[in-house]
Every structure is written in structure tokens, then in C-alpha cells.
Amino acid sequence: MVIQRPIVSEKSAMVTEKNNQYVFRVLPDANKREVKKAVEQLFEVKVKEVRVLNVKGKRKRFGGRMGQRSDWRKAYVRLHPEYHIDFGGGA
Hints:
Alpha-Beta Plaits; two-stranded antiparallel sheet; 6 strands; elongated
């Protein structure tokens, strides 16, 4: 599966409300076509546009040593206006 998990944050919530976009963490070698196909099959929606970007890992201190978190890839998926995805986070 190309999609690893949805990213739920304040920024992703704002993007969802304004532009009907959803944010996912995807495999490092995933391309736009693969992400589009995976989202359409998994959530049964129609994808309008996909943007992918690489996120560089931060340099962090682990105990007394410096280390670096792993790099990862993020995808912004815009759906057609009549579609939406519900992740079931309602409380």
C-alpha cells in the first residue's frame, strides 16, 4: 500500500476546510499516479489533484549523542467538490 497513514494536525484541518485537501504520509518512492490510484480505491472518491513533497528529518539529540530522524514523503490530495473523507475522529 502506497499510503501509510493520514496526517491529522491543525494545518491539515485548515487545508481540508478551505481547499477540500487531505494530507497523507506515503512511501518514499511513491509518485502522484500511485497516490491518486490508492486514494480513489481506498476511500472510493474522485481525486482532482495530487501534490507530493519530501520532508527532511530533523537533527535531534538522543541522550548525549546527536542523531537525525528519518526523511519521509507527504502527499496533499485534493478531491472533487462533491467528495469528502471522514476519518471517524468525531467526538
